[in-house]
Amino acid sequence: MTPLLVDLDAAAASLSLSRRSVQKLIYDGRLPSVQVGRRRLITAADLDAFVDRLREGAGHPSQLAIVGGRQR
Q: From CA 46, how far away is CA 61, in angstroms rounded?
């Protein structure tokens, strides 16, 4: 069974990004997350939706790219 919620480390591994990049995406409001107790978790559905949004914007000049945790 695939987990419904993943921690930041697992999300970062799934997206091939650093933990800090995932934290920045959450802080910037580009990746939703939930708080459960003291843990910050991301739903598998939100990870899929984030990747879909990246694909939709690929090649579009107004779309911002993620490079080293900074937007360009």
A: 24
Cα 7 from chain centroid (whole Å):
11
Overall number of domains in the chain: 1
For tokens 């598998």, what's the residue? 44
Buried residues in 37-63 as b, exposed as e (16+ CB within 10 A): eeeebbbeebbeebeeeeeeeeeeeee
Phi, psi of 22, deg, nearest 5: -65, -40
Note the pTM of the prediction, 2 decimals: 0.76
Query: Residue 36 maps to which CATH number?
Result: 1.10.1660
pLDDT of residue 70: 54
